[in-house]
Queue: 3 jobs
Job 1
Amino acid sequence: MAQSNENIVMFPFMAQGHIIPFLALALHIEQRHKNYNITFVSTPLNIKKLKSSLPPNSSINLHEIPFNSSSHGLPPNSENCDVLPYNLVIHLFRASTSLKPAFKEVISSLTRKNQGQPPLCIIADIFFGWTCGVAKEFNLFHAFFSGASSYGLACYYSFWTNLPHKKVTSDEFVLPDFEEASRIHKSQLALNMLEADGTDSWSLFLLLLE
Ligand SMILES: *[C@@H]1O[C@H](CO)[C@@H](O)[C@H](O)[C@H]1NC(C)=O
Ligand SMILES: *[C@@H]1O[C@H](CO)[C@@H](O)[C@H](O)[C@H]1NC(C)=O
Ligand SMILES: *[C@@H]1O[C@H](CO)[C@@H](O)[C@H](O)[C@H]1NC(C)=O
């Protein structure tokens, strides 16, 4: 049985394809387990938009953490992939790592408000690997959540780890550690994948080499 008023902290990456499934999960948890307090963390403009998406009877707490896109080489008010051209999206990914101190403060403040009892868990985006360190620091359970299918994620992980498209001259390739996925055609790749060679900004960000 869950103790009453335990906090669940949810933190999606700032893109609609991430925020929407996180919100669906938050509403699902709220529906099923009424005694959890859900704290949904995002940047100011995303929180503003989320306010109008929450059903009026929801008790999900929207928690804003500071972010100013202008300070990260992004155009003003750029807090979501949906307002960025392709070539600037990677800058938002990079800038997102700057949210760590503010995110830690969210956990600290929830802990203080709850008589020193830290939140039950952090449910974070797959692009926020650094939240694992925060969870460890506070000794919290940590889970990743993605709206993508497990098959798609397995392909994605294998692709970025191996960059198999660079090792063939043909238009098709197999994933070396996931051959069951069958043949993949280069035309199925997103532009950042097609361009990836291990030294580009996406490879460096995703392989945490930077
Ligand atoms: C959970 O939410 C309720 C209602 O907003 C609040 O009274 C309570 O203090 C919250 N509990 C925690 C642990 O934050
Ligand atoms: C909010 O209202 C909807 C529609 O009546 C209902 O299905 C849902 O369970 C309610 N949610 C909560 C958290 O009470
Ligand atoms: C963001 O930073 C820019 C440049 O430093 C500043 O002009 C602007 O007022 C800031 N925006 C907000 C919302 O704080």
Job 2
Amino acid sequence: MDGFPITYAERISTLPPYLFAAIDDMKQKAIAQGVDIINLGIGDPDLPTPAPIIERLKQAAEDPKHHQYPSYDGMLTFRTAVARWYQRRFGVTLDPASEVLTLIGSKEGIGHIPLAFLNADDVALVPSPGYPVYPVAASFAGGIPYPMPLLKQNGFLPDFDAIPKDIAQKAKLMFLNSPNNPTSVVADKEFFKKAIAFAKGHQIIICHDAAYSEIYYDGLRPASFLETEGAMDVGVEFHSLSKTFNMTGWRIGFAAGRKEVIAGLGKVKSNIDSGVFQAIQEAGITALESDDQLTDGLRHIYQARRDVLVPGLKKLGLELENPTAAFYVWISVPPGFTSASFTAHLLEKMGIVTTPGNGFGDPGEGYIRMTVTTSKERLTEAVERMQKINW
Ligand SMILES: *Cc1c(COP(=O)(O)O)cnc(C)c1O
């Protein structure tokens, strides 16, 4: 081969492979060997986007006024639909023009926000285990991610008292995530109050990731971070239509909260991307304006699946909490296993794909994550396979 050697920048050459890419490799190998795989690995809704949303996209795609570059901040009509949704769902009042920003999925906004606020060696506090994008985005921006361990003894919530003073002083951003991926734990207002007090004390911007706020069970609706007094002074909340409306492939989400923070993220984005296809924003308006009709059915489906998987796993003697939100079951591995060895065991012996907890950060060692984004029949089959194999 001709050409000079290609060397990657340190910021990417030092990264481990994206967690789910590595698991996909393992899965593909098993499929190639003819194994009937049950995938409890990825949190991607398996159900289709509701029909009215698709219909709206079809109509909007025909309209030539949507064929040009969208506005950077997102259509004001979409941002207004977001503000109305916040008012209805959470009782939070937002100014759509200055306190809401359309995103190309919330991952995009989470990935870019450190560029707006971190200087070299500024610290970003990140929950660990946690969504891998938080620490990577902080590093890409030249900052230093500092893990806040989510431990069982603290109800899997960050313990702000455990953060060393010098780290708190250097911290500029803090990511929080409720309902949580990977633990499914839901933070209450008391927790958010503590977070706000800590953030105010150290002048830290809170970025709360609420991607799963609408995936809840037993009628227990999670709170928005922005509902808590003082939240609008210290940060923003990221939201997504991905999980709520089965729209992961569409790439649409938003950030809402303190206007200077929204403006900073908007400034980064206007220099990097050119917004979301307006026909998709039109479809997003349809989604946000009809949320409960479209989402109640989805919640029932996930809840019924949880009610197959969780009792099935408990009967096997596995140690886990019954999730009240999100798609995830966070399971302690049985004695004698590590996260990696139990994941491998489930795949090799039973054809079940799961995610090793340490892939979300070191404090996740000793756990694996399973998802309920698979049919009840397949979840039943997974539980049956596990019953047959002794560990
Ligand atoms: C799925 C997910 C997101 C992002 O979803 P988008 O499709 O980019 O909106 C954000 N945070 C967490 C924790 C997630 O699991």
Job 3
Amino acid sequence: MLWIQRFSGFFSAAMMWIVLSPSLPSSQPAEAIRSSHLHSYLRLPTHIPPFSFRKAPEFRNADVCGLSADITLGEIGVVCDPSLVHVAITLDVDYLRGSIAAVHSILQHSMCPETIFFHFLVSETGLETLVRSTFPQLKFKVYYFDPDRVRSLISTSVRQALEQPLNYARNYLADLLEPCVRRVIYLDSDLVVLDDISKLWYTSLGTKTIGAPEYCHANFTKYFTAAFWSDRRYSDTFGRRKPCYFNTGVMVMDLVKWRRFGYTKRIERWMEIQKMNRIYELGSLPPFLLVFAGHVAPIEHRWNQHGLGGDNVRGSCRDLHPGPVSLLHWSGSGKPWLRLDSRRPCPLDSLWAPYDLYEQHPSSLNSNPNKEEYYFFFFWVKFLD
Ligand SMILES: *[C@@H]1O[C@H](CO)[C@@H](O)[C@H](O)[C@H]1NC(C)=O
């Protein structure tokens, strides 16, 4: 494609002109531009995904679902439709295969898949096109999460993956999502849902701000260091609560209460303390425990069968906890797509495989993707839409 290469310089210049031009003509609401399009222009792709995904089958509402959201309302109008079920998931290159499988599993088990709105949190560009081509009918919006927002707050942990800035994006959902979104289900990227997610959505939180399955038999002491427990200024935070461990990979969040009580700041304050005086060893989980443990609306355990990734250090295979299963979660260091690829899967990894939409892109096998061509393509797609 010689002509592309020859003209790519011109197109790059044209792209920069559009980016820098203050009078960029636009028919889209400012909000939509801010969170999904402008960043696509400003941030050149940092990764070129070396893979693609099969198109998922179409998932349609059953008759009992009633009318689905009115598309003619535009992006903002749709997201504010009160009949929607809101789900937030991160998308990044390393866990993309997991996120796509999670979305696929949710749609497949939902009676009213067209009432689900996905909020994707990203820190790199180029993923929006990929989601659209995999799920052509999906209602979704992509939000840019600036890694610099948390980078200075993150301290080292037992596993490097836990230090990724995007892991901390769940703390900022109340700011990132539109104010009209009053509740959201946050889900990690290493899980599949085997039940109708609307059942989780309609769970009562009572007076609480977040809901999650609690594990009161887990030894809570071990989530914090001796330095934490020996300093009354810190450990007194649990003084008048009965804290139980919960996993932050599946949470139902009341964003109205979250905004009202400023939980984002409270979590950040514990992260600042951690920078000065090491009070825990894990990543984004302990600050959530510090703020919410003992104040969590208990959700049935079936909604987070976690730990299937195995131990944080060794990654051995795990079995299911007893009881019914609505969601399987490969938390821990082992991920099913990596173990399946390595041909040494754990037995339960076969339950993840049916939701995998990954396919090896034929061109990625023998060609080195050309950055210039990619930028050109990128610009052209943006130009056309
Ligand atoms: C809980 O863990 C702490 C620290 O690892 C340990 O000292 C304590 O004995 C444990 N408690 C129980 C009941 O196992």
